Amino acid sequence: MVATISSPDLAASPVEHPVLRAILSKPYPAVMGVLNVTPDSFSDGGQFIAPDRALAQARRMIAEGADIIDIGAESTRPYGGAQAVSAEMELRRLQPVLADVLSLGVPVSIDSMKSEVVAWALDKGAVIANDVWGLQRDSGMAELLAARNAPIIVMHNRDRADPAIDIMKDIATFFARSLDIAVKAGVPRENIVLDPGIGFGKTHEQSMIALARLTEFGSFGLPLLVGASRKLFIASVSPSQPHQRLGGSIAAHVIAAKGGARIIRTHDVAETVQALRVAAAIEEKR
Q: Is 285 a catalytic residue?
């Protein structure tokens, strides 16, 4: 069967958590808007570190159709060069912003690999954890999410790209390991979303392979998230700076939606929402 851009039958991807159920109930993929309160993120570092600008950007993305706002206070720059920061620094950046963004009424995910930061954000009202190391870097993350019954986005990652490996096998093995950690900690399987981590620990070709073969991860029976927004692999096909990669981002995300992605993470919400809705409307005419 050819994958379509509309949402698959929820029976195939069990979703019990009410926030996830609401997010994933649309006839086209949900859109997660990126809000980086960092000075060094690869695409928009420094633009939204001031609390008033961060709040204005969150309002804008919600008005444009974002279903989730994903707030990150530590750059993980998928192609290297990011400066690691302490949990204290992440919290210092988040504290002036999170409450105001939460007051806008849209679910907020916290993009952090540190359980201390995630715990604080969940206490304040964030509802989803977005862990770029998929429960495999902080030993307390899985236990925290099990105790809070909080959904988790498990992203594949590697310390460095290796062009010699079978990237699909590597991602699948990583997911299996993360799911084992989650199950042993008591995280309900239906609280888990999988993200192949486009650009993270992958060559440009491997990122494109993961996108092209996304349907293979459907074997896990869990919702998939894809974030290809402004990633460098686009420039490997069409030379461009991050802010010039809208067309490539939309192309990648429409293909990801056809491959089964249920959530699309993007810097460019309005354009992505329009692309996904139009693609879904066209698919309905088949």
A: no
